[in-house]
Write a structure and sequence with these properties.
Elements lengths: L1 H6 L50 H12 L8 H13 L3 H14 L4 H13 L3 H12 L7 H14 L3 H13 L5 H13 L3 H14 L4 H13 L3 H14 L4 H13 L4 H13 L5 H11 L1
Length: 296
């Protein structure tokens, strides 16, 4: 499991607010979330949102917020108003965002979207107890459609409390809830890896990679699981196929280089790939340089 420790750092790869995983070709304006489904615009600006690679794209947030601030949406235009509030919160304008969320809830007490955004708002303010309360209310609300997102966030919060059993239970619920999301599958797969349940991990990472074909974490996780089971050629095929589609996938490139050099007896190719990793700005530069020298 050495490669797991090297580049797949577990649940730390997915932020607490994650859950709106999409392919890298999607845009963060709510145009799409997965094939055949449309994501509400208010979800597009969460950390882990559309096309963001699990990091809020501050440039896109600022650009879209500036567009809406030219003519702020009215409270009666619920979808636009919720997107505006979500953007304010993502931009760090917490005071005004909180005020507007409460205004929305006051006008629409039965609309779970307001409660969800308020829970996210509390998470950003490090008020976990209040966020937990709201997520648990939404868990019991049959009208709130994005139950997979609720369960995923509850799972991340359980991990933050170091309660792995509760986290796994929530992630498993998230994988069975609607709509289908890649994020809880990746989170569940990481826990499977940590418990050495490699076959289970490989299966859920594969499913995640099919839901979101641009999600590098799913590929790295699946490759690590295959390596742990001794299926080195298959792991290389998984890495190589993804690199053909996305040569900038540095975690995949790093893992594949080590696999080639240490398991598949191809040191020259491994050194070439690791050099590409360094040239592209990979973070494990010192270790990469050591490996390159050992393979020459």
């Amino acid at each position: 499991m050495n490669s797991f420790n090297r580049v797949f750092l577990g649940l730390g790869l997915l932020a607490l607010l994650s859950g709106c995983a999409t392919g890298s070709n999607q845009v963060a304006d709510g145009e799409g979330m997965m094939e055949g489904a449309e994501a509400p615009r208010y979800l597009a600006w969460l950390e882990g949102g559309l096309g963001s690679g699990y990091k809020t794209d501050s440039g896109r947030v600022s650009q879209r917020l500036a567009e809406l601030e030219k003519s702020p949406p009215a409270l009666t235009d619920k979808d636009a108003y919720l997107e505006y509030v979500s953007l304010l919160d993502a931009a760090g304008k917490y005071k005004v965002a909180g005020e507007k969320i409460h205004t929305f809830i006051g006008a629409n007490p039965a609309d779970g979207r307001g409660a969800f955004l308020l829970a996210i708002h509390f998470l950003r303010l490090k008020k976990g107890t209040m966020a937990q309360y709201l997520f648990e209310k939404l868990e019991k609300d049959p009208k709130y459609a994005w139950r997979s997102l609720v369960y995923n966030n509850l799972g991340m919060m359980a991990l933050d409390r170091s309660d792995r059993y509760a986290a796994m239970d929530y992630f498993e619920k998230a994988t069975k809830a609607q709509p289908p999301l890649a994020a809880p599958l990746v989170n569940l797969g990481a826990l499977y890896l940590q418990s050495h349940s490699y076959s289970d991990a490989e299966k859920v990472f594969y499913t995640a990679s099919q839901l979101d074909r641009g999600l590098e974490d799913a590929i790295v996780g699946r490759g690590v699981a295959l390596e742990a089971m001794g299926q080195f050629e298959k792991a290389h095929d998984v890495y190589a196929d993804y690199l053909n589609k996305d040569p900038q996938a540095l975690a995949v490139l790093y893992n594949d280089s080590i696999l080639l050099g240490k398991r598949l007896n191809q040191p020259q190719l491994a050194a070439q790939q690791m050099l590409r990793y360094v040239q592209k700005g990979g973070k494990e530069t010192a270790r990469a340089q050591e490996l390159i020298q050992s393979w020459r």
